[in-house]
Amino acid sequence: MELWFTEKQTDHVGITLKTQRTLMRQESQYQEVAVIDTKQFDRVLLLDGVIQTTIGDEFVYHEMIAHVPLNTHPNPRRVAVIGGGDGGSIREIVKHDSVEKAVLVEIDEQVIKASRQYLPELSSGLDDERVEVLITDGIAHIQASKNTYDVIIIDSTDPVGPAVGLFTEEFYGHVFEALTDEGIMVAQTESPFYEPELVHRTFSRISANFPITRLYLAHIPSYPSGMWSFTLGSKVCDPLAIDGNDLHALDTRYYTPDVHKAAFCLPKFVQKLVTP
Ligand code: SAM
To answer: How far is 86 from 114, CA to CA, in rounded Å?
Structure first.
């Protein structure tokens, strides 16, 4: 018998993965947390049936959400991740020697537990001595933090449930205040192909708060359309003005100094989404 898992990515499109078995499936206070084992992507973390990350292609997402802002900042010492309970972003952050403290602010402890048990490739970074894990709402944490972080990474679920507030203009204003003088934020901002209005709206909300706002892309096969966007807001440093020689060499599979620059070259239809 063959087992297949389907995520309906839109009302008319789905991704279907041949599945070996379900490793765990549990209702948490916030969502249904599940890990399945698939033929193509190895283990996959699902929240409410939506793919969050897969062992097969997570390196693209986590390297791009972490190294672009961290290599743009001249000396990132304190970094926060909002969401990101799988630990993949933290694993990349602690590759930077300048980082003295990395704080993971995840609302749902069950996500961290599931990742620690079934996705050690991702959660391994959580054991680094510079990492602090807070189980709390990232919105409240950011609101209460002033002039605290050099980089804030918003590694959130889609804008539904507890993540809705992570996509508001007000929240990005609090992120600005939580950042230090040369602070940089980055957020995962969904698929420009399927969610053009969301991408446009989110870019406008971030640019309403940050003098430098840039959108960049990465190719993530298990995400809707494969084309994924990240939006970076910065107080001073422009990710495009960095000399390639200043970008730290890191142990990566996707990110390189050339990819850092190329990721900001946008196809025309995406360019239009970020042009006022
Ligand atoms: N890479 C993923 C993606 O693009 O789909 C995101 C992965 S990560 C698992 C997203 C996490 O954000 C989830 O574990 C969820 O519990 C967390 N989250 C959602 N809203 C949150 C909030 N308000 N504060 C903190 N964490 C939140």
So the answer is: 8
Output the residue whose Cα is nearest ligand 1's atom 16.
Answer: 108
CA distance 276 to 204: 8
pTM: 0.98
Å from CA of 65 to ligand 1 middle: 14
CATH superfamily of 3-54: Spermidine synthase, tetramerisation domain (2.30.140.10)
189 lines ligand 1 (CB under 6 A): no
Work out which ligand 1 atom sits closest to the CA atom of 161.
Answer: 20
How many Cβ atoms from other residues are within 10 Å of residue 246's Cβ?
10
Q: Give the number of other Cβ atoms within 10 Å of residue 125's Cβ.
A: 21
Q: Give the pLDDT mean for 141-147.
A: 98
Positions of CATH 3.40.50.150 in the chain:
58-273
Q: Ligand 1: which atom is nearest the Cα of residue 50?
A: 5
Going by C-alpha positions, the residue among 54, 36, 131 that lies closest to residue 92 is 131
Average pLDDT, whole number, for the chain?
96
Please tell me the predicted confidence (pLDDT) of residue 246.
66
- What's the gap in Å between 202 CA and the centre of ligand 1? 17
Question: Does ligand 1 come within 6 angstroms of the Cβ of 166?
Answer: yes
- What CATH number belongs to 58-273? 3.40.50.150
Asked whether 108 lines ligand 1 (CB < 6 A), one says yes
- Hey, what's the torsion of the CAs at 129, 187, 157, 137, to 10 degrees? 60
